[in-house]
Amino acid sequence: MSTLVKQCDRAQIESLYTRMKPLSVRESHPSYTHWQLKLKDMTVTAYTSGKVVFQGADLEWLQEEPAEQDSQTGRNAGSAPAAAGSSMFPQAGSDEVGTGDYFGPVTVAACYVSEETAPVLQKMDITDSKKMTDAAIRKAGPIIRDLCPHSLMVVPPAKYNEVHEHHNIVDMKAKLHDQTWKHLAGRVRVMPELSVVDQFVQEKSYYKYAGTKAYRPLKFETKAESRYLAVAAASVLAREAFLKYWDKMEEDWDMSFHKGAGPAVDRCGREFLARYGRQKLGEVAKLHFRNTEKISH
Q1: What are the CA-CA distances from residue 127 to residues 92, 148, 230, 235 (Å)?
Q2: pLDDT of residue 2
Q3: In which domain, by residue range, is 8 found?
Q4: The domain spanning residue 221 has which CATH number?
């Protein structure tokens, strides 16, 4: 069992809670803590002093966090301005969707944007898919697919659950991103020097999980979907694929599902159990989320 301690401010603790809670199996509130979350592979405890303690078997991916961001600009402290390099074309980027949703798949996309196609996408106001409506995503996705070489992977819930039994979510994401980069490289004659991953783990840990034959070189940057057009386009393609799968899932099961991992999702989960039973839940949901425990009682 390894232990890692980090000092965080209140905003960072709240952000960490938002990201970790959907993956937790139990939440408690020991004395002098904001919260304690028990995940499948580790326990995270946030103390009122600002100290956050991570305990688990594999914490190497947490050893180096992305650079702290300036609260006013949202940029990495000590880094170049956000726009630096973001207008260089050609460029390529990758992003994923669905890892925070209890229901539905995980989708990962990589996209190549040339100097010729960039102005078209810029006129479409392509940005981080989380900031675009579903209607805008559905409209933009086919245009991006027609204009830009891309690679897309869709992992259905059943396959996700099978893989998650042996690989944590960071491991899974690294392997999925790597596959999309390899597929994209097979479709583009010369890959661009500026190839960006929307960072979810430090570079060293990414390549540890992706393996010795991983695609290189890549640039890792947080909030890349808001800074690089290629990452934003990949984000849109991943989101469009997620929505397409979602539509088919609702049609196949004859019910409306809720996105995210909140109370509305729990109500939806209980309805699904009442209609189809526990044995079918893994076909639509990521079973390691805390929601599974909550809807089963």
Answers
A1: 14, 15, 9, 8
A2: 75
A3: 2-59
A4: 3.30.420.10
